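Worked Example 4.2. Consider the chain below.
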Amino acid sequence: MQKYDVAIVGGGASGLACALSLKRLDNKLSVVVIDGGERLGKKLAATGNGQGNVSNRNLSRDNYHGGGARLAYETIAGDFMLPAALFNCLFTCDGEGRIYPSGRQASALVDSLLRELSASGVRFVNPARVVGIWQGFRLSLSSGESIAAQKVVLACGGKAQKQFGTDGSSYALAQSFGHKLTPLYPSLVQLKTDTTHIKTLKGIRCDCSVSALSEGKIVAKSRGDVIFTDYGVSGNAVFKVSPYIAGSSGASLSLEFLPGVDADEIERDVLRKMRLGYPHGELLSGTLHNQVGRAILKSCGSAPAEIAAKVKNFVLPVTGTLGFDYAQVTRGGIDCRDIDGDMQSTLMRGLYLVGEYVDVDGDCGGYNLLWAFASGVRAARSIAGSL
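Applying the procedure from the previous section yields the following C-alpha cells:
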C-alpha cells in the first residue's frame, strides 16, 4: 500500500487547484490525485464553450446559492482574479465582467495545471474510482490498488454532466462518515415549457429580458439570448434564471421582447399598421422577427394595447428541465453545516470537501469555477499548515 501526505479524489477544477496550491506551499508534500476519467480537467477544458470563463469581475454574495452560499463568498473574499495566480497566462475581461484567458482556450488552462503538477511530482491515478474510504485514511480503488493518506480531499464534483464522470455516486464517500446530502437539482440548464405558442420558433434567437416566476412571484431576472427549441427554451438568459426555479412546481417564464422599448411605442406602431391595412398576422412585422411576431399575435386578441402587453409579457409555463445530463452544475450537495471555514469536515478531521461536491452553486458567468478554485486553495492552505 502506497502512502501519501494528501490524497485528492477528483481531478477537476477544485481538485487540481488544491494539488497545485499544496505543492506551491510545500513541495515536499507527497500528493496523489485520483480520477475516474481518462483525462483530468475534462470539464474545465469545456467551460465557457471551450473559451475558459473562469471568473467574473461583478462578484457579490448574491451570485451564490445553496446552504453554503455565505461560506462560498467568504472563501473567495472578493478575489475575482484568483485564477491569475493559478495559471501561467494572461487574462482579459469582457463587457459583462466575464474573465477569460487571453487566448480564449480553456484546454490551455488544463495544460498549464497538469504541466506544473507533473513537474512538481504529483502522482495521477486515472482512470480509477475510489470505491471505499475508511478512517485513517485508507482508500480502496476500482483498480484494486489501496492508498493510505494523512489527509483526504473530496473534490468529486456533483451530478451534472455525467459525460465528465460526475454521476453523483461519489456522494457516498462523504456519507460514509455521516455527512448529509441535500436535495439535488439540475442548474444552469435548458428549460422545458409549454410549446403551444412557440412550435414554429425552433432555432430562433432573441434578445429578451427574462423573469422567472415561482408561485406567481418574480424570483429572478436576466437579460440576454433566448433560443427557442422543440422542447422549450435555451440561451444564456434562460441559464441564468434556471437555478432560481430548480425543483419548484408551478414555475413560469415571462419573456419581454424589445426590453428597451416602451409598451406605448409598440402600441402606436401596431395602430399605425392597422390603419395602413396590415393583416393581423403582420402587425409586428419589422418590429420583431416575423415568426416571433406571428406567434405572439396568435396568442392574443386584436387590440393594440393587448398586443403590446403580450410583447412585453409573453408567458411560458415551465414543465421541467433537460435534466442533469445537460445541466452545467448541480444545485445541492453535501450539507455545508458540517464543513468549517477551511473546508474541513467537522465530523472527520483531516477530511476536506470542496467545489461542486458541496451545497454551493453559482450564477452563470464564471462564478462556479471561481468557487471551485477558491475552495481548493482554501483547503490546501489548511492542510499545508497542519502537516
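The mean pLDDT is 95. The chain has two domains: 2-184+332-386, 191-321. Compare this with Example 4.1 before moving on.
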